[in-house]
């Protein structure tokens, strides 16, 4: 089961869950993913130890997609 | 997968030179020069005063104090980037955020975070220590410390309510996706000898810097 989670005040919230073989769940996850990007979130997936990638389309095969907020210099 | 190689936050800072090893060396030299220009005149004035009029000892001591305090203030500014920020959320949110952070890092980093509140992250530029609102990079032959202030954009709704684990995870994910971009977006608060930084850090955080120094010095990082 793949997950799309958003880091927020609760620690994190699960925005969508899907399995690649379930087109309806994938479609719902894609819709939720785009909605979060429209809200200003950035999507990240792990790309191996110490590596991460930002994605603009939902990687359906990824186990975990994390939504983060933009950063700014302090 | 439509991956993006450069941090999108960099685009808004088009005037900034992208940070690389050469840029870091340049910034390090600049910070050394600044320190010298702050210290030498005061020490020179103290020496001159004592040579001309030994009764001016109190003024000469004040000059020496200035020469000592100013670099210390800079180092304190550097240490401040690792201090915890924001309000303390409830314990459940905190635990949940730390759990997610723990999933992103290895066992050693997880254990270090539990003790110090900081995450050690090896990178291409050097060894990083990541906190809630900033990060320290050890880079160069001597492992000079570069203290960066960077945090979740406060203009975004909800940014101020993130638990500490999430704040660190935000920085860690950005760092892992584009290390140079991360250092470009961040504001450099201090650069100097790591012992100067260590002295100004909270006691409970010093083991994290010690671990980073050990990692850096043992060559497990691909620094320089």
Structure description:
The complex is a heterodimer of chains A (74) and B (224). Chain A has 74 residues and is α+β, with helices and mostly antiparallel strands. Helix content of chain A is 22%, strand content 38%. Chain A starts with a strand and ends with a strand. The radius of gyration of chain B is 20 Å and the shape is elongated. Chain B contains 9 helices and 6 strands, in the order βαααααββββααβαα. Chain B has one domain (18-224). A 5-stranded antiparallel beta sheet of chain B has the order 2-3-4-5-6, sandwiched between helices. Chain B has 224 residues and is α+β, with helices and mostly antiparallel strands. Chains A and B meet through strand 3, strand 4 and strand 6 of A and strand 1, helix 4, strand 5 and helix 6 of B.
Strand and helix order of chain A: EEHEEEE
Which band does the percent of strand residues of chain B land in? Answer: 5-15%
Number of strands of chain B: 6
DSSP summary, beta strand count of chain A: 6
> How does the helix and strand content of chain A classify structurally?
alpha+beta
Helix amount of chain A: 10-25%
SS field, number of helical segments of chain A: 1
Order of helices and strands of chain B: EHHHHHEEEEHHEHH
Oligomer: heterodimer
Structural class of chain B: alpha+beta
The most extensive interface between chains reads: A-B, 32 and 54 residues
Biggest β-sheet: strands ordered side by side in the sheet of chain A: 2-1-5-3-4
Radius of gyration of chain A: 12 Å
What would a concise description of this structure say?
Chain A has a five-stranded mixed beta sheet with strand order 2-1-5-3-4, with helices on one face.
Write the layout of secondary structure elements.
The complex is a heterodimer of chains A (74) and B (224).
Chain A: E1 2-6, E2 13-18, H1 23-38, E3 42-46, E4 52-55, E5 64-68, E6 71-73
Parallel strand pairs in A: 1-5
Antiparallel strand pairs in A: 1-2, 3-4, 3-5
Chain B: E1 3-4, H1 8-11, H2 21-52, H3 57-80, H4 91-104, H5 107-116, E2 119-122, E3 127-130, E4 134-139, E5 144-152, H6 164-177, H7 179-185, E6 187-192, H8 194-200, H9 206-217
Antiparallel strand pairs in B: 2-3, 3-4, 4-5, 5-6
Helix pairs in contact in B: 2-3, 3-8, 4-6, 6-7
């Amino acid at each position: 089961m793949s997950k799309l989670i958003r880091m927020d005040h609760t620690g994190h919230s699960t925005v969508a869950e899907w399995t690649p073989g379930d087109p309806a769940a994938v479609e719902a996850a894609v819709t939720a993913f785009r909605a979060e990007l429209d809200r200003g979130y950035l999507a990240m997936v792990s790309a191996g130890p110490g590596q991460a990638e930002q994605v603009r389309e939902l990687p359906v095969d990824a186990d975990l997609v994390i939504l983060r907020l933009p950063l700014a210099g302090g | 997968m439509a991956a993006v190689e450069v941090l999108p936050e960099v685009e808004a800072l088009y005037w900034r030179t992208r940070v690389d090893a050469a840029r870091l060396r340049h910034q390090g030299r600049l910070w050394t020069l600044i320190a010298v220009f702050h210290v030498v005149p005061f020490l020179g004035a103290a020496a001159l005063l004592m040579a001309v009029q030994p009764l001016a000892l109190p003024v000469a001591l004040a000059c020496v104090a200035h020469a000592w305090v100013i670099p210390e203030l800079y180092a304190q500014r550097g240490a401040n980037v690792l201090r915890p920020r924001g309000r303390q959320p409830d314990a459940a949110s905190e635990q949940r955020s730390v759990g997610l952070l723990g999933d992103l890092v290895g066992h050693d980093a997880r254990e270090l975070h539990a003790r110090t509140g900081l995450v050690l992250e090896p990178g291409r530029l050097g060894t990083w220590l990541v906190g809630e609102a900033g990060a320290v990079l050890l880079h160069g032959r001597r492992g000079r410390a570069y203290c960066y202030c960077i945090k979740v954009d406060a203009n975004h709704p909800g940014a101020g309510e993130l638990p500490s684990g999430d704040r660190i995870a935000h920085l860690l994910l950005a760092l892992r996706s584009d290390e140079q971009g991360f250092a470009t977006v961040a504001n450099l608060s201090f650069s100097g000898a790591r012992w100067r930084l260590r002295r100004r850090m909270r006691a409970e955080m010093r083991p994290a810097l010690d671990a980073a120094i050990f990692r850096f010095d043992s060559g497990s990082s691909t620094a320089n």
